[in-house]
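Protocol step 6 of 9: fold each sequence in the batch and record its structure tokens directly after the sequence line. For illustration, a two-sequence batch is reproduced in full.

Sequence one:
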Amino acid sequence: MPAALPATSGPLTTFTIGETRYTLLGTAHVSAESADDVRKLIDSGAFDAVAIELCDARHHSMSNPDAMGEQDLFQVFREGKAGMVAASLALGAFQQRIADQSGIQPGAEMRAAVEEASRLKLPLLLVDRDVGVTLKRIYRNVPWWQRFSLFSGLIGSVLSRQDVSKEDIEKLKEGDMLEATFSEFAAESEALYTPLIRERDRYMALRLAEEAPPGRYQHVLVVIGAGHLKGTGEHLEAPLPADPKVERESLEATPPPSKIWKALPWLITALVLTGFAIGFSRNTGLGWQLVLEWFLINGILSGGATIIALAHPVTVIATFFAAPLTSLNPTIGAGFVAAGVELYMRKPKVRDFSSLRHDVTQLKGWWQNRVSRTLLVFILATLGSAVGTWVAGFRIAGALFGSA
């Protein structure tokens, strides 16, 4: 008969599968008691492995708070990850606000699990899905008309300087940072609830089946948020696939954009160039007028957007001239050019990376820090160019078909 486990403030559920026992501890992500629960359970000596609700990226960020400084910013922009990095910084800013207000760092129980497992030399299993993959699957899963309100709500909530409400802190005690941020939408949107919660319940059970299959360990402690306790437990108790890797990898895949969205930039380019050709065929003056308007509208809106980000004057000028050309070349964006020039003119210094996590907790810090400001330059130049393309496109259509 296994020895009784220490009493905990959070719920405990135990499953025995084959020769292995899995004890799931439901934790509160903003709770000193949950961190104490984790320490007591691991120190009891009842477990020979510890699994936690973290992915490799979040574990690395927790172990190395200055991880952002190790990234090649130019590579981030080239790979199209600027938006994801900005969202991660914004979430980190929200997390710091929670810590400043409550006096407890969110995820303290995960940090306790990492530290205790390391001290006792127990295997540490990271079973949650990568946060970037979850964000991408959320983006792909929700209808396109909901995406702007969803992510503007995300950025707005994490950048607000108002005190975090007691209700939001209570939500954090049952879910994680993503769930608390999107909770307003998740309750009413199946498209959001599925990738944010239901898929992760299944994913964590599959990861456990891979990393700690029955027989590999005698007793595994699984530290997860209380909101995932029921779903993950049900998946773990039910028969899992003989090869969980196949299904797990399917939950890591990012659904590709529809063929229509992939073809749209090329279609717009073809329509604009056709508009120019029609204009010149009618009248040389009309043709040059359309070209000039395309150039000015794209350049002013995209270059003007970089002014909002307080970009270097050379960046503003370069974006003004680049945007009309990049808008006709779907393989490169105005944001990429703007960020590249900004990096060249204002290369981030060591102190920018070291103070980044602190700076982004304040709205003005996004403009003062060279790293976050470069992200803003990229995002705003991209948005300005997109708006400019549509405005100029409609202007051309109006000039050609008599509605202007």
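Sequence two, same batch, same settings:
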Amino acid sequence: MSENTMTLRDRIEEVLRTVYDPEIPVNIFELGLVYEIRIGDNNRIGIIMTLTAPGCPVAGDIIREVDEKVRAIEDVSDVDVTLTFDPPWNKEMMSEEARLELGFM
């Protein structure tokens, strides 16, 4: 799919697949850490996400990376990344591909 035929949501999902939890060799999108992507007026993007553990020492780094990469997408005017632990993340939220990669299947 070329850059021109991809929707804004596709492009957001694509960059989220380049963000990794440093302790797990799978991207945050396939891990199921991204709960919601909202595209609002003037292409303001709202992302609700979680982490694999509330005490994650690199939480700030992951959130900053999500913000910077989504903000860099052409047509995005603003980004608001919200961290939540409700519902708490569990391995059932991972894509089938991620579960295979990590040996959970």
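Proceed to step 7 once all outputs are recorded. Observation for sequence two: Residues 59-71 form the longest helix (13 residues).
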